[in-house]
Write a structure and sequence with these properties.
Structural class: mainly alpha
Order of helices and strands: H
Strand content: under 5%
Radius of gyration: 28 Å
């Protein structure tokens, strides 16, 4: 059984197209996950700032 060059190029192109699609989807998912984690860290930072400000406003400093 002999495989001609056109069939080999077609199969190779099909495999490369599938792999490139998989890589693209993986990159998009990774960017979305990174964006989500960044948003969560910003929310945690805001909450820590609120707690810190609350503690500072309730505790009187010795200089006052």
């Amino acid at each position: 059984m002999k495989i001609d060059i056109k069939t080999l190029i077609g199969i190779t192109g099909f495999i490369l197209a599938g792999l490139s699609g998989w890589v693209l989807i993986s990159i998009v998912e990774l960017k979305e996950f990174t964006r989500m984690m960044n948003g969560e860290l910003v929310q945690i930072d805001k909450q820590i700032g609120r707690v810190y400000n609350y503690i500072n406003s309730t505790v009187k400093s010795p200089a006052e």
